[in-house]
Design a protein that fits this description.
The structure is a homodimer.
Chain A (H helix, E strand, L loop, with lengths): L6 H10 L3 H10 L5 E2 H8 L3 H13 L3 E6 L2 E6 L2 H13 L10 H12 L1 E3 L2 E3 L1 H12 L3 E2 L5 E2 L1 H10 L4 H5 L6 E4 L6 E4 H14 L2 E3 L5 E3 L3 H9 L20
Antiparallel strand pairs in A: 1-3, 2-3, 4-5, 6-7, 8-9, 10-11
Helix pairs in contact in A: 3-4
The structure holds a DNA duplex.
DNA sequence: CGCACCGGTCGGTGGGGACCGAACCGTTCC
DNA sequence: GGAACGGTTCGGTCCCCACCGACCGGTGCG
């Protein structure tokens, strides 16, 4: 019924992401949480008025959803598909690769490399390990495209994750998402999100600062057992925030 | 190892698609073929010098690959993943929906709606029908994500499409691609491309003008048999190019 | 060998948009 | 009620970039 998408419409959408400030907003919102306009303005280093303008355009363009609460304006990515779009673009964009300058930054970076949220699923070394373990255990199979196996359904039910509701939405059940730090795929899609949520609910993982996620003391053996891997493989990076280190 | 992609890199990539002319180039190149600089300039309605500038930027940005032959500069999308990116963006962009003005345009649009290439796989009514028939026949299964079944491997081998080479690359074997005209998914990925190529090789389909594809007289019963569908379901739109029609 | 053609390069021009400061509005808390 | 705060609107400034015309280099054909 509709004609082909024309260049102007495509360009208009791309233009929303073609500004460093707006792109930075979207990358920040990739943590899956709702931010206030002021937080985003500070994080991007622009005046509140500028940020307000940008947010209005992003909302009107359908990339962001907003929610007003009192004097605050909360915004979040409109949709998992927006997160996927931003991920795909970011994955193709060249990495500036500026090494961290301070010890604190290096430590924070190590935490992020270990485990973090990627919109609403797990990423980092832990995310890739989860992905690999699910394949090894036969929960997932990629003989003909990544798919959940019948064995996998039982495994998930055991874990307390009902599968049927996940099939209901339009969102793909399982999907590869290229990990920026590991350069290997981790698990996204409705199932990736459900597992990430379940681990938090079970207390196996907990949110750290920003997008960082850490494995709790109770979670380490529990997760290792569920995935049938050696608990040692789940070891977080050695903590360096006690005592000074030299350059 | 690398740090997070920063807003500037993402914005720079998006900026390549944030211009109507460049976006139009990419949409034109979605037909999977290589175009000359002049063809693209004429199709977009800009001066050759302007087009040359744009192409240089798109090539430097990694979205397009070029190939010089004599005095011609051929360009094509760099990669199937670029095609996917453009598709995803175009699918989210609002459709301008300008109805066709002339009879010739209406006829051309009907041909495109029936069957066309989407980068390197089949789209349009025929593409969606193929997708549905493969699911119905058990070649594909989406119980836990879209996947090729063991039955499907045999079916493909029968058809003369070896599956193993398709697994080799980094490209996903099967993937959904939202059809712009049908608003329903058709089959993309390495398998989608291989089937489209195989149908052309077998003479079941043939290229029409532009991105259009038509089913040959020999192809119609053959394809119907292979898919186990009624040949009537494969009927193309009634041809209207004989005799005038009134508005 | 010249002519036609495709394409790239180089200034110049014009428009769009990113940014800020200042003034303003509504909420929250004392 | 008043003060502090988050957010928005409005003008104004400045820079970037899309576009063209003109000129130049390489290719292919007669």
């Amino acid at each position: 019924m509709t004609t082909r998408t024309d260049g102007h419409a495509l360009a208009g959408l791309a233009a929303l992401l073609a500004d460093p400030t707006r792109a930075g907003f979207c990358l920040a919102l990739l943590d899956g949480r709702a931010w206030t306009a002021g937080e985003l303005a500070r994080s991007a280093g622009v005046a509140p008025s500028t940020a307000s303008d940008h947010l209005t355009r992003l909302v009107r363009g359908g990339l962001l959803a907003e929610e007003r609460q009192g004097r605050h304006r909360y915004v979040r990515l409109a949709d998992p598909s927006v997160a996927q779009l931003v991920e795909d673009l970011a994955g193709r964009a060249p990495a500036p690769a500026a090494p961290p300058r301070t010890l604190r930054a290096a430590s924070a970076q190590a935490s992020l490399a270990y485990a973090r949220t990627c919109y609403d699923h797990l990423a980092g070394r832990l995310g890739v390990l989860l992905h690999d373990a699910l394949l090894a255990r036969g929960v997932l199979d990629r003989a003909g495209g990544l798919a959940l196996t019948p064995t996998g359904v039982a495994w998930l039910t055991d874990l307390g994750v009902p599968v049927e509701p996940l099939r209901a939405g339009r969102r793909p059940l399982v999907r590869d998402c290229l990990d920026w730090t590991e350069r290997r795929p981790h698990l996204a899609g409705a199932l990736g999100a459900a597992l990430c949520r379940r681990f938090l609910d079970l207390g196996w993982t907990a949110r750290g600062t920003g997008r960082a996620v850490r494995l709790t003391p109770a979670g380490r053996p529990a997760l290792a057992a569920a995935l049938a891997v050696d608990p040692a493989d789940l070891a977080p990076p050695a903590s360096r925030d006690t005592g000074p280190a030299r350059a």
